Structures are given as C-alpha cells and as structure tokens.
Amino acid sequence: MRTMRRSLLLVAVLVLGVAAWAAVQQMSVQVRAGQLRATPSHLGKVAASVAYGDRLTVVQKQGAWYSVKDARGRTGWIHESALTTKRVVLKAGDADVAAGAGGDEIALAGKGFNEQVEGEFRARETGADYAWVDRMEAMVVTPEQAVAFLAAGEVAPQGGAR
Q1: Cβ(85)–Cβ(29) below 8 Å
Q2: Which segments within 8-155 are labelled E, that is strand?
Q3: Residue 125 sits in which domain range?
Q4: How far apart, in whole angstroms, are the C-alpha atoms of residue 96 and residue 59?
C-alpha cells in the first residue's frame, strides 16, 4: 500500500512538472516601442512593431533574443532587454488608456515617472538645461545608418545572427 502511494505521488509530481514545463511562456513589452525583427540581431529587418504592455508568446530563446508571437499572430525576434515576465497592468477606470496618454507617458508611468514627479524634479533642479536631452530624444538613427557606422568602425555585430 505504501509503495502504491509513493508511486501515485511520483506520477502526480511528474505530470505537474511536465504540465508546467509545457506551459506557454508569456512576456510583456517593457519599452515604449519594441521591434520584432526577422533575425535575432539589432541589425535584422524590422518585421513589426509592438507597444509598451503588449503581451507576447515566447516560441524559443536564442542567446539574448526571444522568438515571439503577438496577439495579432505576427512573429519575430525581440531582445530580452525589451521584455519582462511581469504582466503590465494599466488602470484607467472606464476610460481607454490610449485615448488619454501617449506611449511615452504610459511607459514612464509604468516605471513610476509621471508629470508630477517631473515637475518636482524640475522645481528642485532649476539650473538643469534640458536642451541637449531634447535634441538627443529627437535624433533618429536608421538601420542603414547604424550598419554604415559599424562598418566604418570595423565593428562586428554581437549576439544573435552574425
């Protein structure tokens, strides 16, 4: 009888372990705007864009890159730094969050930074010059420019596909 109980317990533990292992892993986008790429490389062609809070299903992992599928069925590779295992929950009462806040505001609020915190910081740091920050935020580097920059410096891309 004792051996039978142990056997049943072992089978139950194995079944639960296999079920947990086979469970689909979901991750959330933790950056304002993420890019699903055709290859696991920062230089890979952008296949689709995802937004802060989007849930992605992990298909596989290769180094620091995840092959994922979004709710619309789009697939691609995204770097692990753009993802979190935590579920991003935005509460806005009955109103649609997207209608009242932009992607920047949503991403910053998710990290604890909002208009009030920014106002307090600006009040404390009256001598701070934000002109260069504004200029840097306005800069856009195309994938072609990034490839040319790396080639000029004879830098080989690291991680993912080479």
Answers
A1: no
A2: 26-29, 33-37, 46-51, 55-62, 65-69, 75-79, 83-84
A3: 26-129
A4: 30
Query: What's the CATH code of the domain at 97?
Result: 2.30.30.40
Helix, strand or coil, per DSSP, at residue 91: coil
Spell out the per-residue pLDDT of the chain, length 162, in tens. 677 777 777 776 666 655 555 457 999 999 888 999 999 998 889 999 999 999 999 999 999 999 999 999 999 999 999 999 998 766 554 444 444 455 555 555 555 667 787 788 888 888 888 788 789 889 988 888 988 998 999 988 765 544
CB count in 10 Å sphere of residue 65: 22
Check: CB of residue 56 under 8 Å from CB of residue 50.
yes
CB 77 within 8 A of CB 67: yes
Token reading at 129: 């010059």
Q: Tell me whether residue 41 is in a domain.
A: yes
